[in-house]
Amino acid sequence: MNRIRVLLVDDQALFREGLRILLEQKSHLEIVDEAGDGEQALTAARFHRPDIVLMDLRMPRVNGVEATRRISAEMPDTRIIVLTTFEDDEEVYEALSAGAVGYLLKASPSERVIEAIELTARGESFIEPSVTAKLLQHFSRLASNQVRRAAPQPLAEPLSSRELDVLKHLATGHSNKEIANALGIAEGTVKNHMSNVLGKLGVLDRTQAALRARELDLI
Predict the structure, then answer these.
(1) pLDDT at 167 exceeding the cut of 90
(2) DSSP per position, 99-124
(3) Which of 66-70, 141-145, 206-210 has the least mean pLDDT?
(4) How far is Cα 83 from Cα 162, in angstroms, rounded to an integer?
(5) How many CB atoms lie within 10 A of CB 155?
(6) Distance (Å, rounded) from C-alpha 117 to C-alpha 216?
(7) N or C: which end of the chain has fewer CB within 10 A?
(8) Rounded to 5, what percent of the chain is helix, strand, coil?
(9) What angle (nearest 5°) sits at the alpha carbon of residue 170, between those of residues 194 and 1?
(10) 68: closest CA among 85, 90, 87, 52?
(11) How buried is residue 77: exposed, middle or buried, by Cβ count under 10 Å (0-12/13-18/19+)?
(12) Contact status, residue 166 vs residue 179, Cβ threshold 8 Å
């Protein structure tokens, strides 16, 4: 496995130190730098061009949402995972709208943080299950507040029953491994189903798939 280059961004030095110690135990993860605020994060990202940025939200000078927006605009190949204490609806929406492809809580187990890094490095997204639920609720509220809403275009090719099973687990924030265990199938089979689901829904990642599925009343 190629080494995944990671930039740590958090205004708490002690938390960064603990996270560094945790991640450096994995030989395929390389911590290229640390930053204590969004401005430092942007400077470090420009210099190192990391694969992954673990981004806190509430920081001095430039907050995590604005730093995410700037890094995503300048370095689209750098993928950003928000790692924060907060799961406020608006912060979730703002961070993902700014370009984050993952959203984890600092209370998440270490295995989940490592899994999120590995998945996002492969082009997938990873959203905390509780955060996924809030995100879907946010878009449901937006939809219900619209006086007139155009009916969504139906799928050109319907999802199979197994693809719907995968989609429902995806929408709750489960990883491919967790879906495989829940459905009693191989992880490689889940990946094939996932690819089919994304293609049929006409979306690029898991978060968009969950939102599109909600829009079509598939979940």
Answers:
(1) no
(2) T-SEEEETTS-HHHHHHHHHHHHTT-
(3) 141-145
(4) 32
(5) 13
(6) 30
(7) N
(8) 55, 15, 35
(9) 60
(10) 52
(11) exposed
(12) yes
Q: What tokens appear for 105 in the block? A: 């809580």
Residues present in the chain in total:
219
Neighbours of 136 (CB within 10 A): 18
Bigger pLDDT: 154 vs 81: 81
Nearest CA among 118, 216, 134 for reference residue 172: 134
Model confidence, pTM? 0.67
Region for residue 205 given its phi and psi (left: phi exceeds 0; alpha: psi -120 to 50; beta: otherwise):
beta
Confidence of residue 147 (pLDDT cuts 50, 70, 90): very low
Angle at 36 between CA 117 and CA 40, to 5 degrees: 90
Q: How many whole angstroms separate alpha carbon 209 and alpha carbon 216?
A: 10
pLDDT over 60 at 4, yes or no: yes
